## 1
Amino acid sequence: MACKPGGWIESFEASPMIYSDDGTVKDDSAMAEWGKFFTEGGKKLGRVFTPLDDDLQEKGMEEAGFVDIQTLKQKIPIGGWAEDEKLKEMGSVSQVSLGSDLEGYVSFMANLLLGWNTEQVIVYCAQFRRELRSGKCHSYYNQRCVWGRKPEAS
């Protein structure tokens, strides 16, 4: 399906990198390792798993000739630590989402691309879940929504 002149498209991406502004995501933590699965695995696959971090959304739309490009950037908490009620709810949802299928997220990259065995995946996922449930990490990930309009035919 093609976008007709005057039509709009939207690109929504979440970064695989997990951050904290207060240092509660330590460099040696499972959360800090999370993004490395996707950046390293992507390199081995010849694919990009970081279009947000590589700023590809806006560039792609501009190169495709779209106009009126707008961007919404958000920090999405992981867990219910945020003071704002809406962010707290979003954080609770992201925590459940991340914790519910860690092995599914991690296995392909860790086993096939990075050479981890099953035991290493299980240990990593257990550590990640401990960090998720601890409530001590004020972790978040970035997401970005970019939309633009295809110019009218001239």
Note: The first helix runs from residue 30 to 45.
## 2
Amino acid sequence: MDSKPDQSSTPITEPIREESLLDRLIFFFQNTFLGRGDAKYERKKLLRKVKKELKTLIPPVYNTSNHTITSHFAELLFEIYRFTNPLKAILSFEQSKLDKSRVEQFFVEIHLNETQKNIIHQLNQEEFAKILEEEGVKGLDQKINDILHQLQNSITREQIIAINANFTQLIELSRLAEFDMYQLLRRFAPALKENVITDPPKFREVDGRYLIDELKELSERVYSMNLREDFIKPLSIFGDYKGKQILPDSDIKKLVLLLNNMVKSNYLPLITGYILKDPFFRAVRNQKTENLVQNYMKDLLLTTKKLRDQVVNLLRKHRINQLTEELFGTSQIRTIEHYTEALDDLFQKAKVETFSFVQGLNFLKYFLMEKYNRYIRENLNQLLLHGDFIDQQLRNDVSESHHECNGLIKSILALDQSLDGSAERGIKIKVLLKKAHSEATGQRILNDFIQSINEEAHLITFKATKSFTLITSTLKLIAEDYKTGTQKTVTNIRAVGGPDNKELMSQLVKGFNDMTKLLVLIKAVHPPEYLQL
């Protein structure tokens, strides 16, 4: 053994001065005649006890005469290193949130019974799609809520204790494996090669004052472990997760025995306390029980919500395509040039809003060009000019809505053209996008500017849905009057249009059907609450 202790850094403290005869006489006088003790002397007295305990340790791990940690201590560490070194890479799941989440999920679900697993299996895309078709979004949300509550209520207290205990032990073992035992051992054997755990090298003594931080950290990690258990169960579960054995049971037992002996002999706190001149030093115990079931339920809720949103969005997209095909004969509608999703990536990178009413405005503009302007507008003109409305206020409302619809194309074009790259708004967006990446105020101004554009698009869509809703509700009343021969809305409904009355009514009914489909389509794209002012 190399007799020269390692001194590669500045020691944390000076050597402890031995107690002199004068010290003892002063303490005796104060204690006997003055009725008070000396705290400093008491501390030294306690340190003498620590020193005595260190001298009695077998094997001798600390030399109090020259403050060195012996090679025996390094040999004990190396025996632990034999087991923690292979565990270090395997138990590295805490370094990744995704890996840890998967391990947590496995630890919970392996403790569940078949009934509980079947409850979880109900949370799948196919089941959600079926419920959504039959019961709608509200029915799906209620079903998901019921399933999650059923699962949570079925997990017993005994299951929770077992899950949390096993995972906590795995975390404790992971933290021990993360400790850089190799670097500590290199202080005792500089030639030690990393990952070589078969033959222990020749160790030398090391001045303990240079290792105080490592000793404190190792103490905290070891003393925070629940060594009453054998760690076989958690490593067995983790082995099932990895699909291979982590350590043989015999090796796990040897490791736990080594750690228990380390704790029972108490040499880590004794050495650390003696070096620090602190006889009251104790290893900090950080025994935190993981609340795994609670974390699992939170993650399951988030995962289920994402799956639910995916299913709802898929069905919504399918429904929108279906409605678009029914109304226009195609699902590929693109009539707007500048108020589009083309800038979405740039907006998202700048962390600002995107254009919100792109799809709705495209459908609306296409409808106005292909349906409203082609036949609906002229037929409504005929009705308003020649129909004798019983309720003149209703006629005025329909006329106003008709007039509103006539100006929608112009409003949409004005909004879209204002965003052209050479137009004022288009130029402003380019300038603000550059500023948004470098200035917080630029980001805020850009976001406010996009919001103002969205509000304009929102207003156009709102006016359209409001106007078409009034027109369709009125046409429905007129169609019912025409069919039944009553005159509750327009007294001369069978005479409007003269000899072309039947054709006019046929076109009005067709317009009613097309406008109704448009309202359903816009509702699918933008929910009603989204279109409110």
Note: The first strand starts at residue 62 and ends at 63.
